[in-house]
Amino acid sequence: MFDEDIETIKKQNMNLADEIYILDTTLRDGEQTPGVALTVDDKIQIAQKLDNVGVDKIEVGFPASSKGELISSKQIKSLNLSSTVVGLARSVKNDIDAVLDADLDYIHTFIGTSPLHRDYKLKMSKETTISTAVEAVEYAKDHGLSVEFSAEDATRTERDFLFEIYRDVVDAGADFLDIPDTVGILTPIITRDLITDIKSNFKTPISVHFHNDFGLATANTLTAIECGANQAHVTVNGIGERTGNTSLEEIVVALHSAYGIKLNVDTSQLYSLSEFVGRLTGIKMPVNKPIVGDNAFAHESGIHVHGILNNSSTYEPISPELVGHSRKIVLGKHTGANALKSKLKEYHIDLNDEQFDKVFNQIKALGDKGKCVTDDDLKAIALTELGSARETPIKLKGLGLLCGAIVSPTATVKLEIDGVEKETSDTGVGPVDAALNAIRDLIQDTMDIELEEYNLEAINGGTDALADVFVISSDKEGNKSTGRAINDDIVMASILAVLDSINKLLLIKRSEI
Ligand code: KIV
Ligand code: ZN
Residue 81 C-alpha to ligand 2 middle, in angstroms? Predict the structure, then answer.
């Protein structure tokens, strides 16, 4: 779509508020994510980060719900953050008092308004529901609080009753009307109808609090803002009850990218904020999570990488720098020559055409085996190829095996290490284990290795099958390397695969990169 088309669409279909605020509820609704429990210290650290990022309001908790909640709310308030600190309260005096005890001056008070909540949870008539809400708002206002009122389960509430309760709480002094989609049933079209109706009937600023049960929270929140909503409730990484809430990073970036709306949020901190909250909550993001997932700016296919290398906008909607993330070129079965060339350039590895083809084919073959080729693998494969003209540091010079029912499997291995021959014997649970133990003994002065993965496949069926062994070894510095060998003897294939990976690790260690 061209810029002029977008401008026309905006004019015809949007009713953007002059100012749009972000209320982050990671520390309240986000903490209601099943399995998440934050300490007072965790909450303080997250609140400080949210304040640095620039969200307008931080809902720090539900002070009446526990001593810890009261303490953390009070301590966060005492930090004098730039963001407004908000406390949640049911429409009951005790809850409002807890918000006052925490020294907060902004309350988010709510009552269930849908028939389901009135009949099965509150057991209140419509009249009592309204009078309870009004009394709560009046009480909070009388105590000097700014009041945001939520009609819980608003989206399953009769429209006329919803308007009635909103009208009465506005008369009682509510400063903000919040519309929670408590069980996430909205769609963009229904959102549009609801928000447009509310905006044309109320002058009080409105806020939306949408859940993500159908994966539509961000789309619905964006629609609500397009129709005039003044504030969005969000959480970092979209965490929250069940499938979560509207995600901070998604809505901020969507507003920025679709409409150039910058808000007060520093987008360049969004990725680090996501990582931080992920670490403290223990909720790891899926790789395909928009904006902050590992794959948000990762590219593997040859066509895409080619485009990206020429101009990153070809396959990226925004630059990773905008949100503090980074671009990743991944090697695998879809890798094209351009991606490989750029990676080799990055690591200053200069291959001739023949060597390049060999490395390229090895990467494709590993990809076909379902392996993702890491940067360490690539370095090892490429350096081995470069070094194949040179001598490999370690060579197998001899192997003897002793197996049987009454003796421990024993292997005698002779290696040439940097031109010096060494021989030793060791035992193990089987012949492969015994041989690998003997190798470890022989190379221990040269390097300390760990066998991280060992995979044995028979290339064709039958007792004369070729053994195809694939291993991953690592050294103490955390370098990893793959090794592979095919042999008609399982022990031999295992030893050669392990030596292959050890030689690559040594080449990495001894190379300049
Ligand atoms: O989802 C919801 O309805 C809530 C209320 C407390 C506003 O979180
Ligand atoms: Zn909620």
Answer: 24
Q: Which tens digit of pLDDT belongs to each residue from 324-351?
A: 999 998 888 888 898 899 889 988 889 9
Comma-separated ranges of CATH 3.20.20.70 domains in the chain: 15-281
Sequence-ordered list of residues with C-beta below 8 angstroms from that of 210, at least 6 positions apart, any chain: 180, 181, 184, 186, 216, 217, 220, 221, 224, 233, 245, 246
Name the pLDDT band for 513 (thresholds 50, 70, 90). very low
The CATH homologous superfamily for domain 15-281 is Aldolase class I (3.20.20.70)
Ligand at minimal distance from the CA of 156 is: 1
Residue bearing tokens 């304040």? 51
Q: Residues 218, 3: contact at Cβ < 8 Å? A: no
Superfamily of segment(s) 394-512: Alpha-isopropylmalate synthase LeuA, regulatory domain (3.30.160.270)
Residue with token string 């690539």: 378
The CA 277 to ligand 1 mean position distance, Å, reads 21
Residues of the chain with CATH 3.30.160.270: 394-512
Q: Are 201 and 177 in contact (CB under 8 A)?
A: no
Of 194, 237, 173, 204, the C-alpha closest to 25 is 237
Reported pTM = 0.77
pLDDT digits (tens, 9 = 90+) for 27-77: 999 999 999 999 999 999 999 999 999 999 999 999 999 999 999 999 999
Does residue 150's CB lie within 6 angstroms of at least one atom of ligand 1? yes
